[in-house]
Design brief:
single chain, alpha/beta, 20% strand, globular
């Protein structure tokens, strides 16, 4: 099947190699190590930091953040670093239920204000935790319908101010340009193959808005991403 035809609907049956329990650990760790390049080029987190985080930090000086499904931890480290350079303080708790992700993130160079934990968001809800901002990067397309509902509801419970779930936006252009531009990062890693599967599994803006509960909105985050947003009154 051509990629054009396969992108008409979400391919929810496609499985990313990184999600397999028996995937090659060396290739997995290379993938985590290359995520900063991919996210730096495509995911728009510096723009999100500038537009969403910095106004909060300008009024408070500090904020607590929860990063759900943090993977190798690069988004958490980047956010804390940008805040520090601006003279602010972000206290980031970055969680992932996958032992392999936790191990990689914990071995990475420490960044002040960032701590990693192997956990599900539901565990933090049960503990009564709360954070100014709750976020995720590229996890929504991994979830089935029940998991999606659980994560957004957990996010509502855990956030005191704002929730930002950043995820890929499915399109033919995204698929073809990623295949053409990011194949070098796929050598020895899962970046390219899994990235294409991620695009096949991801939502259009309209699909994401239909999947989201009342009170959530979908915003554009650059040409390749949707931002699912919830703001407490």
């Amino acid at each position: 099947m051509s990629p054009w035809g396969s992108l008409k609907d979400r391919d929810v049956d496609a499985i990313e190699d990184m999600d397999r329990s028996d995937c090659d650990l060396q290739r997995l760790n290379r993938s985590y190590a290359r995520f900063p390049v991919v996210n730096g080029l495509l995911s728009g987190w510096h723009r999100i930091y500038r537009d969403r985080f910095r106004p909060i930090l300008a009024s408070t000086g500090t904020a607590s953040v929860l990063d759900i499904g943090c993977g190798g931890g690069d988004v958490a480290r980047s956010l804390a670093g940008w805040a520090a350079r601006d003279g602010f303080s972000l206290l980031v708790t970055a969680i992932d239920p996958d032992q392999r992700a936790y191990d990689f993130a914990s071995r990475s160079p420490a960044v002040e204000g960032v701590r990693f934990r192997q956990a599900h968001s539901a565990e933090l809800v049960a503990e009564g935790s709360a954070f100014d901002i709750v976020l995720s990067n590229h996890i929504l397309h991994h979830l089935d319908a029940d998991q999606f509902t659980a994560v957004v509801r957990d996010s509502e419970a855990l956030a005191k101010r704002l929730v930002l779930h950043n995820d890929l936006k499915r399109s033919n252009a995204a698929y073809l340009l990623f295949a053409a531009g990011f194949w070098p990062l796929g050598v020895g890693s899962y970046i390219c193959g899994d990235g294409l599967v991620s695009i096949k599994r991801s939502f259009t803006a309209a699909e994401l808005q239909r999947a989201a509960p009342v009170g959530w909105s979908v915003e554009r985050n650059g040409p390749w991403h949707n931002l699912l947003v919830y703001q407490h009154a």
